[in-house]
Amino acid sequence: MAEDFKSLMIEALQDAYSAETQLIEALPDMAEAAQSPTLRQAFEDHLAQTRGHVERLERAAELLDADPEGEECEAMEGLTAEAEEIMDDHDEGPVRDAALIGAAQKVEHYEIATYGTLHAMAKAAGMQEVADLFAQTLAEEKTADEKLTLLAEREVNPAALAA
């Protein structure tokens, strides 16, 4: 594996690690801001899952002989700032819940892109154990996104329209 490619993969891993640790800080506030008990639970469940993502990133960093900590993920800073704005600008209720789902799905889509890239890089480098760690997280992020879509379609958006 070319050293430059390994460095690139480590940078991407460090960015993901920063993103996930920022998300661990943001999710409790999002859960508290949600009026829908189902949405609150979804945020709490994803918080527990995100802690597992951090553990996998730490394991992948260990396998790459790298420090998982690096620069701050600016993309996640922006995404969590958007979620904070939603919580500040909207009163509690179904409309805010709909906006929070939108913010959460932006996060999920960013994470899907991140873990898809990391998985492809590890696979290309022949690092199957690392690739498997990223594939597991990628699958969980896709599932979280699908759950948010169903929650929006079945509960939150109809409630927001009726509000």
From TrEMBL:
Tell me which Gene3D superfamilies the record gives. 1.20.1260.10
On the tree of life, the source organism's domain of life is Bacteria
**CDD domains recorded:** YciF
User: Which InterPro entries does the annotation name?
Assistant: DUF892_YciF-like, Ferritin-like, Ferritin-like_SF, YciF
Quote the protein name from its UniProt record.
Ferritin-like metal-binding protein YciE
User: What organism is this sequence from?
Assistant: Falsiroseomonas stagni DSM 19981
